[in-house]
Amino acid sequence: MFELRRDPIVGRQVFIAEDRASRPNDFLERDSADSADQSPADCPFCAGHEEQTPEAELEVSAATSSWQVRVVPNKFPALSLNQQAFAPQDTSSLESVPQMPLGAHEVIIETPRHVQDITELSPDEVARVLRVYRQRLRDWSEHDSIRYVSIFKNVGVAAGASLEHAHSQLIALPDVPPAIIAELGSAEYYFAKHRKCIFCQVLTEELSHGKRLVFENESFVAFCAYAGRQPYETWIVPRDHNAQFEHLTNEESLQLAAVIQRLVRSLRSRLSRLSYNLMLHTSPFRQDAADYYHWHFELVPRCTQLAGFEWGTGMFINPLSPERAAAALVASAQ
Amino acid sequence: MFELRRDPIVGRQVFIAEDRASRPNDFLERDSADSADQSPADCPFCAGHEEQTPEAELEVSAATSSWQVRVVPNKFPALSLNQQAFAPQDTSSLESVPQMPLGAHEVIIETPRHVQDITELSPDEVARVLRVYRQRLRDWSEHDSIRYVSIFKNVGVAAGASLEHAHSQLIALPDVPPAIIAELGSAEYYFAKHRKCIFCQVLTEELSHGKRLVFENESFVAFCAYAGRQPYETWIVPRDHNAQFEHLTNEESLQLAAVIQRLVRSLRSRLSRLSYNLMLHTSPFRQDAADYYHWHFELVPRCTQLAGFEWGTGMFINPLSPERAAAALVASAQ
Asked: What is the Cα gyration radius of chain B?
């Protein structure tokens, strides 16, 4: 069953995506399974196990080798491009008419080798993965029914990973998600008022005082977010204004790979059992946001559990100041 | 350091609350510590260890016994009533002037005995805890500087609990939090349009089709939320329209205790290692929401980790339909 529901009171959007095979009681077990127990022998993402995944949408290979990066449909998708019609409900009800979520859920297998994080890949390999992100965004931009593509990494059990083999996920959506709508809205408002990109302005301020800077290179700046939701939340922002990740150059892919790897290495040296989520924020397709939006990555280490206060209020509690977090990450990189 | 920060782009509110004693590297360890390892001997909440907590704000005792419920200030608060002045920053900056968050963070110790959940308390003991919630809301409503009080329970490590001894938490806030503002806004809008409380209307619909009903008694109805964010997310709503939990009657406290205990027992029979958050949603102080708001509890079992998709988009993926969840909870209560 695939269904997109809106909460009748606050409009919150939830995909109901039942994996019919799994029993309700499996959830906790699956969630708490220690992914470190996995062995390459049963890893569906390793070279030689290609038959354990659906057929690849895209494979990047060198003439001399087998595949280097593979993009396959997720075996347990949250939504799908192939939906049969859905009978609308009694519209006198407060329940929204559930939509069959049209879209796709893909896994980007970052290497044929059984390694657990991008820090174990070469800079060239990471850059290649980033260029596969770019390619899939370009591919999906040609689907009229897709407005936004969310690309993210879950690393470690505490970040929601179920398989340890280095991989990213891609979810193609028919509409722009709430978090991106909120960013676009205030970025457009700021641009209308100041004729300036709000992300460029934040970057200028972070570079000027430098108190939350973590790393920078020719093309990218990494800094701890002023209002980080978790200890060490870090944003990676391109120096050059650009709304769409699809415009990433090959040279930039190498520079971006270097910053991401350096950041994750520093995090590992601070946090013995690092789990993190890495999220790409980029412009929706067919949205004229070139002037005011600025693509970037947000990396959120999962140090503390969201608890009743966060779930009940929508506010966050961060027990480490972003300034101290940045200083610690810089120090650990020395 | 206490600071309330607003994200310069989306306005997200984050409390920066540093526990100076703890080292950044402690977070993961503390988070993943198995609370089941705790022994009553070192439990600061057990009878006889009162000196390990700050002085009690409130103690409920029977003539014949020592205290039965204790309310103490949190030793590691997210905010505090005693804040020194804070130097405003350069206001040309995008950074909001950080506010020193004025408020309080309290722990409600539900029993002198070392038990781990309200299912191990008697119905009378649970009802007494609920009446302490009511009392603290009444107490805080007299502080002009406090607009909202968030009361919640974190049970189990996956729900953010750090101590296993049965307890609740209370955070008194100077402003109404975003999640409650959103509820108030759409409830007020619905009332203006239909002259009806939206929660009463949801309740009517849930009772009429019954497909998500879990339990009901004379005063309360528990049903799985139509757009539940996690498997088994359940709301407990009073049949009688009332905006403020402060108005709970003693008889209702017994009925509410019965529903909460029955619900948690059913969840435990479905989920071998249950972790959950229980959140009270009630009207802000000095807000004329009597007509359109309706207090209730939201219980969210923590079955799956929020991952990159949820953090990046603000949407949720729930792998179990609320209808199947309700059927499973009803069956397990037979």
From this structure: 20
Inform me whether the pLDDT recorded for A178 exceeds 50. Answer: yes
Q: Which of A97, A312, A123 is nearest to B300 (CA)?
A: A312
Closest approach of A47 to chain B, Cα-based (Å): 25
Q: What is the pTM of this model?
A: 0.92
| ipTM confidence | 0.92
Q: Tens of pLDDT along A130-159?
A: 999 999 999 999 999 899 999 999 999 899
Contact predicate B61/B69, CB 8 Å: no
- Asked whether residue A89 carries a pLDDT value surpassing 90, the answer given is no
CATH architecture of A2-78+100-333: 2-Layer Sandwich (3.30)
CA distance A157 to A137: 27
For residue A3, give the chain B residue with the closest CA: B321
pLDDT, tens digit (0-9, with 9 covering 90-100), for B115-144: 999 999 999 999 999 999 999 999 999 999
Are A159 and B32 an interchain contact pair (Cβ–Cβ within 8 Å)? no
Chain B interface test: which of A93, A315, A324 (most B C-beta within 10 Å):
A315
Residues in chain A closer than 8 A to B152 (CB atoms): 307-309, 311-312
Q: What is the four-CA torsion angle of B35, B39, B44, B45, rounded to 10 degrees?
A: 80
Contacts B179 to A, Cβ<8 Å: 10, 312-314
| Rounded to 5°, angle at Cα B75 from B72 and B76 | 130
Cβ distance of A17 and B201 shorter than 8 Å: no
